[in-house]
Amino acid sequence: MPQNSHTPRSQPLWATVPESDRGSVRLLGAVVGIGVLQLLFYFGAVLHPWTKATISRPVYAATGGFVHPELVMNLAWLGLVLFVLRSESLTARDVGLRRAVVGPALWSVVLVWLGAQMLLVTATVVTTGRVPGFAVTPLFSDGVVVFVGLLVRELFGNSLYEEVLYRGLLTEQVRLHLGSLSGVGPSSALALALAGSQALFAFVHVPARLYQGATVPQTALSVAALFVVGLLFAVVYYRTGNLLLAVGVHTLSNFPVFVFGATAQWAVWLATLGLLLVWPRLSLSQTAARPATVQPGD
To answer: Which positions fall inside the CAAX prenyl protease 2/Lysostaphin resistance protein A-like domain (predicted)?
Structure first.
């Protein structure tokens, strides 16, 4: 049994909170440590000229643009996260990776994608008076292999890893520890956990933004945007109880595949908010994706 475990007394009404007792000081420290190590490794090894010339570029060229260094790196870090879970007698299920949520996640992501397409078409018609043309060709301008490689990199290399680490693990660990404190109710614990964990999620991107040449104001704006988007991903998880749905939305946000008009992340975000608003009415999702019975809270 993990250390400092506790079971929440009640749950916020709007959320599908796991009835978990997996709080652990060591696990919380390990989550933060993995994030720091990843940054150090990224700037110390992945971006090093020798690594690029000797490993990254040759592998990318040999696979026709399919294998990206970020995919390999993030899969390795995800393996480390799962190893740490195992050391705490936990499994992938404890961070929301369950077979039961695969189906609801898939069709829900399709709904979000279709909704985003409709929003973009509607916005184009309203602002220009024209229906946007079918623009699937630019998606494959570098070839199908490169396109699929980019999608795989985002889905399994970036979105899956970040959702497991920052939403499935970090946010939940902070919530559990705050909820164990006297005077902190379930809703307050969840709200504080969402704010604190997503602030960390946003700030870990600062070095990369500065490395890419962003100015301080641009970096600050990027951090603010990442905080809000991180909150959206976290709310997707806690609203639906489906981490894989958060992974799918994260993927669409970073890699929005539109077949009409230009790419627009805002359409994905609005479509996601729409899904969250109608989620309680989707009975299939409620029965298939809910990890535990939720009791109305404060």
So the answer is: 148-255
